């Protein structure tokens, strides 16, 4: 029964992916009404997150962000399905790389790079455009799903242009395996760690926030330069990416400096256009507790 349901869902996604973009966005308008006005999908989570993140804004200002977020969420959900049929030509037309030379310069120097981003704008399309732009391999680190069939399905879509999908706990091992090649390792920096494994809190969107230290740990162990992928929506169905330099020498940074830096970079981006971040995610699941032992980044 579960397998039959999965195949039915996959078929529905494929049928959506066959729609031309004008029809896709008409469907998205309808989906927005269903999500927001009928199902009230995670509205309490979104409102709580916005209230905590932007206490300086009025109720009317936060309500506008909320509605714009749900409109964008509807677009993003259907655009993710559209990945099934997106060609390289189409993704290059719809996703502009503003400074592709930043990453290419590292590859030309035979240097691998760590690229960190967040759940902002269309990060799923972002993985496709990076893979479609460069000859060097793209390694995309992901958090495994409880539904393994859907995980396999999504990873096939994400890797359609040749990306290598790497489960989070196997990141360092895979990077070491690839050390003889130049590659771009893409990590999402705003995931929520498990409470029992949390080792560090930083200030993010007006709140103490538990953060993964994976970017900093890997950067300090490998010495790979770190850049931030700032994805932005230009208009409906069209995006751009700008690489932001964070550090060429991560081993010279102080402990937690790099973690704070990429988190602060994401916050500044969110504050400029907040409706493009994933507010429906339960990002603040627990409060800081006394941490007895912090990790060392020496090496």
TrEMBL record:
A Pfam family assignment: Lip_A_acyltrans
Transmembrane segments: 12-39
Keywords from the UniProt entry: Acyltransferase, Cell inner membrane, Cell membrane, Membrane, Transferase, Transmembrane, Transmembrane helix
UniProt superkingdom: Bacteria
GO cellular component: plasma membrane
Keyword Acyltransferase among UniProt keywords: yes
Annotated GO biological process: glycolipid biosynthetic process
Molecular-function GO term, any one: acyltransferase activity
Keyword Kinase annotated: no
InterPro entries according to UniProt: LipA_acyltrans (IPR004960)
Protein localization: Cell inner membrane
Main location group: membrane
Secretion signal span: none
Protein's recorded name: Lauroyl acyltransferase
């Amino acid at each position: 029964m579960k397998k039959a349901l999965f195949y039915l869902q996959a078929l529905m996604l494929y049928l959506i992916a066959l729609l031309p973009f004008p029809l896709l966005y008409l469907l998205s308008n309808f989906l927005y009404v269903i999500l927001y006005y009928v199902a009230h999908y995670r509205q309490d989570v979104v409102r709580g997150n916005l209230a905590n993140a932007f206490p300086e804004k009025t109720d009317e200002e936060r309500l506008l962000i909320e509605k714009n977020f749900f409109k964008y969420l509807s677009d993003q959900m259907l655009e993710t399905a559209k990945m099934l049929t997106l060609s390289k030509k189409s993704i290059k037309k719809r996703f502009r790389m503003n400074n592709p030379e930043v990453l290419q310069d590292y590859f030309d120097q035979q240097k691998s790079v760590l690229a960190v981003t967040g759940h902002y704008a269309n990060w799923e399309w972002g993985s496709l455009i990076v893979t479609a732009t460069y000859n060097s391999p793209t390694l995309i680190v992901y958090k495994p799903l409880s539904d393994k069939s859907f995980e396999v399905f999504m990873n096939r879509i994400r890797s359609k242009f040749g990306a290598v999908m790497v489960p989070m706990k196997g990141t360092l091992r895979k990077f070491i395996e690839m050390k003889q090649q130049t590659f771009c390792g893409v990590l999402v920096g705003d995931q929520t760690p498990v409470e029992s494994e949390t080792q560090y809190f930083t200030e993010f969107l007006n709140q103490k926030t538990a953060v993964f230290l994976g970017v900093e740990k890997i950067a300090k162990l490998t010495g790979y330069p770190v850049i931030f992928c700032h994805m932005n929506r230009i208009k409906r169905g069209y995006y751009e990416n700008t690489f932001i330099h964070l550090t060429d020498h991560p081993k010279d940074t102080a402990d937690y400096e790099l973690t704070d830096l990429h988190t602060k970079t994401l916050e500044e981006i969110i504050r400029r256009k907040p409706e493009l971040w994933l507010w429906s995610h339960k990002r603040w699941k627990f409060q800081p507790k006394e941490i007895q032992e912090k990790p060392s980044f020496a090496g």
